[in-house]
Each structure stands twice: as structure tokens, then as C-alpha cells.
Amino acid sequence: MPTIVFISHDQQRHEIQADIGDNLMQLAMDNGVPGIDADCGGSCACGTCHVYVQQNQQSLVAPDDMETSMISMRPDAEDSSRLSCQLAVNADMDGLELLVPEFQM
Amino acid sequence: MNKPANTSNQDIPVGSINLSDPSRFENYTWPETFARVREEDPVHFIEDSPFGPFWSITKFKDIVFVDSNHKLFSSEPFIIIGDPNVPSNNFISMDPPKHDVQRKAVQGVVAPKNLAEFESLIRERTQKVLDGLPLGEPIDWVQHVSKELTSLMLATLFGLPLEEREKLPYWSDMATSSPGVAGNTSVSDDVRQAGLDECLSRFIQLWHETLDKESSFNLISLLQKSDDTKDMINDLEEYLGNILLLIVGGNDTTRNSMTGGVYAMNKFPEQFDKLKANPELIPNMVSEIIRWQTPLAHMRRIATQDVELGGKTIKKGDKVVMWYISGNRDTDVIENADDFIVDRKNARQHLSFGFGVHRCMGNRLAEMQLRILWEEILLRFDKIELLQEPKRVESNFVHGYENMMVKVSAL
After folding, report:
1. B270 inside domain
2. Inter-chain contact A103–B115, Cβ cutoff 8 Å?
3. What is the ipTM of this complex?
4. B107 contacts in A (CB within 8 Å)?
5. Is residue B5 part of a domain?
6. Number of H helices and number of E strands within chain B?
7. Measured between CA atoms, how close is B403 to chain A, in angstroms?
8. Which CATH architecture has domain A3-99?
9. pLDDT of residue B247
10. Other beta carbons less than 10 A from residue A75's beta carbon
11. Is-above-0.80 flag for pTM?
């Protein structure tokens, strides 16, 4: 079982044991990670499950056009920005650290 | 209220119902009519209407699909059901990539770090407005509170001197009040044109005033600093189009949610009691107000190719209207959707901000303004009593209030 680490804005670490295939946004919601709003419920349509991927980016599938568009609409977007609703847990993600931004927009 | 006998449309075939009739919104009969269409014909087509033939999308999930697929459903040339007779050359009526560069130029004004700086200013102003309300006397909440607070905020965002703030809601009304655009018949074409001319000439002047002040940080200075928009003043139609977008976007929406929340508390008084006992529910309640009110009833798109939806075929070139106001009452997604519930679960999952690349840019500012308003209300008032049913706006786009008489009592 890979461990996924969400780091909230107050630097608190939330280490979660995940199953392969789990959706990262849902994982955060189910485990009460603060700062993930998920207004659209996982449709890649709102941008409020934004996270910064701290390392290990090669374990992630590349964002599609829609995700890239939604991220680009955020003033605080960085190269490491992803929408967690678009990412499913895989075996290479063990130890992956995701920083939750101060605000979702 | 003048309620036409057939407004609920129970006596006509569902296929003949014209959801764009602005009187449904003015008379507040829309909930039952939309409920019927959601049940019987959720992807609904009408051939004849004052706005031509159009599709109505009434279910929550179908609206999310249309809104988030900008390649299948274009926002050009306009996002209101009628065809524009005001400058509509603005980024909400553009598809990517042009939309993206214009929006990016200005969205920094509502970036998180700026919101934090706005908080104390908004609170100070809210306290002053609420402290100035006469107790125990009939007052118009729209005029004294909702319009005042939203125009103060918007003047600040534009860098417009505060003493000119009353012009902003007036220009906003002029931009959306037209029979051809959204069914409003209250303003003559001449009056509307004069209002828009006045708006443009003031904003041309403001552009130059802003250039002269190097330290400005506001919507105008952001347009001037971005390579993509720094020459927008040379295209007056595009400049006015974007100014009107930002005025309407920052005005009608928050204003009518400020009024709608007070109205909802009077219709569901036990919810106000619950809120008073649990003020920590305020942020959740703010989302619930925005859902329950749905201050913009719809957005429109044009299909760019044939699309199958709900067993129907929407043809390339067809006009498609997403009724946010209906999706937000869809009981397949939202339990007891007609009820206003301050501690509703998943209150954030509503359609009022839209979805996809055109999602509301000012959503977090709007939520903050509403949160602060209710925090300050709870510190002062025991009751905000509705004295009579409000007068609502005659429009199928702006779902709001012309006035709402209330009486406030101190704690």
C-alpha cells in the first residue's frame, strides 16, 4: 500500500495509506485533509483540489488539456501544480508529498 | 403581485414551455416550472421564443458537462440568452486562447494575498454600514446594505473615487436591462445607451488617471501592466465590454446574495436560530446562500458540433442555455434542494459560480464579503424582519431584488 503525504498550509503532515487506483482528491476528502474544497466533486471543472507536487513528479500521468486550462486560471499556479481529482494512486507514488495551498480558488 | 394564471404551465404540454419568460423570475413561479421540466423533459428544446430557438439544460450533471466542455460549447459571441446590444467583446464571451490571456491579466486583483489585505477594509465598511441602520424602522435592505457594500468594494477594485460609487450599480443595471438581452422592459433604449456612454467616458478618463499614478494596484492598472491588454484603451468596444463584465460580475451577484440571505432567513426562521447558536456555520451558510439564491440564473453557449445529451441531439450552431438556477434545485444531486439549510452537507457543490474555464473569478472575494456581513450581523441584530414580499427583477438572467423592506432589531 503506497503512503501518500498531504502537507497542509500550516505544515501539518497527513500520511495516508492508499490503495492502488484511489483518487487523490477523494483520499484527501475521506481523510479530512484541510484545504481541499473539491467544489465540483472531481470533474476537473473548478480547480479547488489544487496541490503542489513536491517531488517524484515522474510517477504522475501528464495533465490533459482541460486540467492544464483549469490550472492556468489560478493566479498561484506553479510548474508543480496539479488537480488532485485527476490523479489516481499507482505503485510508484509511495511517499509522494503534496503541498496544499493556503487558499483554493 | 401580478401572477398570470398560466405561469406554472401545468395546463400546457411540457414541450411548449418557454423557460426564458422573465415574468417567471419576477413572480417567483420559476421553482415549480423548472421542477416540472427537470422531471419530464430535462434537455428541453423550444422553437419559438423572443430569443429564438434554444435548448434548456436543467439538470445539475448535464450543466457541469456543458459548462466544462468549452470545445463542444462555445461562449462566443455572448453568454446571455439574448443577442447583445451592448459591447460584449469581453473575456467571458471569448473562448480559449484569447479568453485566457485577458482573464489572466486581471485575476491577480482577487489573488489570495490581496484578499487577505481586503479583509479588514471590508469589515470596517460593513461595521459602519450596519451601525448606521436605524433600528425598528422600515428600511430597504437592497439600497442601504447590499448596494452600498458591493459598490464600495467595486469602486476600490477599479480605483474609482468612493464618492462616485453609486454609478456602478446604475451602470450594471444598464448593461443587463434590455428586452432583447434578458427580457427586462423597465428601461428605454435611449436611457440605457446614455448610461453606457456615460460609463465609457468615465472609464476612459479613469484609464488616464490610473496611468498617471504609478503606485496603483487595481483592475485598471493590471490591464495596463499586462502585455496582452496594455493597449486595450485603443479598442473602446473591448475596453467597455470588459469593464461591464467586471461591473456586472462584481455587482449583481454579491448584491443579490446579500439580500437573498436575509430573505432566506425569513422563510426558514429556524435556520437563523441555528446560525445564531452556531456562528461557526457561517462559511458553510455562505455557500448555501449562493446556491439557494443563484444570483445569475443562466449562461448560454453555442454548440460547435452535434452533441448527444439526455437522448436528444443538439445540432451544431444551436443555442444552449444552462439554467444554473434549476440545476441548483436538482434533487438527484442536492437533497431537499428547495430548502435553505445552513448546515447542509457538501454546500460548496453548487453551480452558481459556473464550472470550467469561465468559472467565476471573484468567487472567494464574494464569499468573504458575505461571511463578514453575517459575522457582523450576528454581533448586532436579533432579527431582520421581512415586512413584505420583495420586488424582484424582471429578468431571466439577473435573479435578484429591486427592493426589500425590512426592520432590524438590536440584540
Report:
1. yes
2. yes
3. 0.88
4. 73, 75
5. no
6. 16, 12
7. 31
8. Roll (3.10)
9. 92
10. 17
11. yes
